[in-house]
Write a structure and sequence with these properties.
- With 277 residues, the chain is of the alpha+beta class.
- It has three domains: 57 residues, Winged helix-like DNA-binding domain superfamily/Winged helix DNA-binding domain (Arc Repressor Mutant, subunit A); 99 residues, no CATH class; 71 residues, no CATH class.
- 34% of the residues are buried.
- The longest helix has 13 residues.
- The protein contains eleven helices and twelve strands.
- The strands form four sheets. Strands 4-5-7-6 form a four-stranded mixed beta sheet.
- α1 crosses α2, α5 packs antiparallel against α6 and α6 crosses α8.
Length: 277
């Protein structure tokens, strides 16, 4: 258990000034600006406050405050998006976390999905009491991002169509083909549906497997979307792709150059017979 120690009057006054303007995140630069001291002095103060149990170090130079009621110095992070926005910048909230935000899924996910262009990132990270799943991309020069306010902090999130394009590119961002399929169904039924925008984002990503998966699923469940289905088919590559790389796929769908699990073909047959989705 980490003991929270008392601070002298001057140190307490300085910390109070910093906390009043911190917006949840405390950095060396912020302390230096607020207290008008050097980065070296600011860093020493941050380390001291952390040792005393008043701050929690997220990563080098970045801290959050520890609530007074915390008994062990481990903070309960109130808004993980704000933490992600600072720790993994440049980044955006995507995948299943964005799908939850846009009401495309009722599944409960145990971690926050973050997409970043910061190199040398592990796929998993735990900060405070929150788990993060991290996807690294080559560039953040992307369209399809929307700024949303979390308290006083503006955080980037993938818009509805970008969210789905990212998932069809990397199914791990949705937890696999089955939850991604459900998310697609909800997207198609929502006011956010914009298939031409989805095609545009998919072209920017540059993975032709997106068009195979999207075209295949639309043809099975939304056959009236003939123009989009045809457009997807024009954009597929000649090689075969797994519908879900994480699953055994021993059945071939020649039209879409896809390898699919046997039970998935049975699922399509069942859904068509019962009219369910």
């Amino acid at each position: 258990m980490k003991i929270v120690s008392g601070l002298g009057a001057l140190s307490r006054e300085r910390l109070s000034k910093v906390l009043r303007v911190s917006k949840g995140i405390i950095t060396v630069g912020l302390v230096s600006e607020v207290l008008n001291n050097s980065n070296i002095e600011a860093g020493k103060l941050l380390s001291y406050w952390a040792r005393q149990g008043w701050l929690y170090r997220i990563k080098r130079g970045i801290y959050i405050s520890v609530p007074i009621e915390s008994s062990d110095g481990e903070p309960a992070i109130e808004d993980p998006w704000i933490i992600a926005n600072t720790v993994f910048e440049p980044c955006y909230i995507g995948g299943w976390s964005a799908a939850e935000y846009w009401d495309f899924t009722e599944q409960i996910y145990q971690s926050i999905c973050v997409i970043t262009s910061e190199s040398k990132r592990n796929k998993q990270a735990t900060l405070g009491n929150v788990d993060f799943y991290i996807k690294t991309i080559t560039s953040m020069k992307l369209s399809g991002l929307k700024g949303v306010w979390r308290g006083q902090v503006k955080v980037n999130i993938s818009d509805p169509s970008r969210t789905l394009a990212d998932m069809l590119d990397d199914l791990k961002l949705g937890g696999g083909i089955r939850p991604v399929y459900d998310i697609l169904i909800n997207y198609m039924k929502s006011t956010h549906k914009n298939l031409y925008l989805l095609i545009q984002y998919s072209e920017q990503i540059g993975n032709k497997s997106i068009f195979k998966r999207l075209g295949f699923l639309l043809e099975q469940y939304f056959p009236d979307e003939e123009k989009i289905i045809s457009l997807c088919h024009q954009k597929i590559s000649s090689g075969y792709t797994k519908l879900d790389p994480g699953l055994d796929s021993n059945k071939i769908v020649t039209r879409w150059k896809l390898r699919v699990p046997e039970y998935w073909k049975e699922k399509i047959k069942y859904d068509k017979q019962t009219g369910t989705s």
